[in-house]
Amino acid sequence: MFHELDQVLLQLKSDTRTVPTEILFCNVINYFGRRRLPTCALHVFVEMSQYRCQRTVRSVNSLLSALLKCGAFDKMKEVLSSIDKYGKPDACTYNILINGYSQSGCFDDALKLFEEPTGVTFGTLVNGYCKNFKVKEALKMKHDMLEVYGVCPTVHTYASLIKALCQIGGLSLAFKLKEEAYEGKIKVDSAIYSTLISSLIKAGRSDEVSGILEEMREKGCEPDTVTYNVLINGFCVENDLESAYRVLDEMVEKGVKPDFEEAAVVLDEMMFKGYKPRRDRLEIFLQRLCESGKLEILGKVISSLSKGNAVDADC
Fold first, then answer.
1. Which of 78, 165, 218, 288 is the most exposed place for a label (fewest CB within 10 A)?
2. What separation in angstroms does the CA of 186 have from each of 135, 183, 211?
3. Domain range for residue 257?
């Protein structure tokens, strides 16, 4: 692939009748970023002028994004120092830089980039703090974004904080933040509820899960595949396979696409323990599994069902 790409670029350089577009070079730079080749990405950017192609903030953004993917933070700083030659940084530039500073742990430098930070700006920084287990700093930033900058937290900001709190055992505060989000007219999504449900199960508080599920539906937030997987995993850990399959059964009934690998494990355990699923639901599940084209998983499921004489059983 590299050889063919070099040949195309050499041909474009020699053909003076053609002026390659900037987007072409952006795609090449992005390609090298995905391949984790920062030097190649930088070389293409530097060489663009020899192809009679003007560099703008658009190609600078592609280069910064590629360098970020490679973790080349020092090279990002070098590019940033000369960015004014190519135009004024835009929102895309700032978001790339925020991610870069956040990943490298330079949160203060990231915030200094902005005179008027947005919800996306703060959300990215909060997420960066959370990923670095700096939950105290993340909570302070959430407070400052509203009280100091007058920027309302987004659902993604709350999702990052709640996930981080659950990871360190801060369930009580995580639930308080959920309520705070609702008070701020922010619609809490299934991802947040799934995180809370998973944490409740891990904390041995499975009896509270039904209340959370009821609240979800009251708020107009239906469980998704992730939510159901969390429930299935929880029931399997507690060795309550009947409840695990009941959840799987509900997924089929509500038309939620199941995680077939997860379902195959549950079915195998059920058959091993002597519990046979209902035939009508099983037929629907097998039909969807066939439609998905996951033949290897289908083979495992049929093998499990055959061992338990459930393939033709009307349970």
1. 218
2. 21, 7, 20
3. 224-315
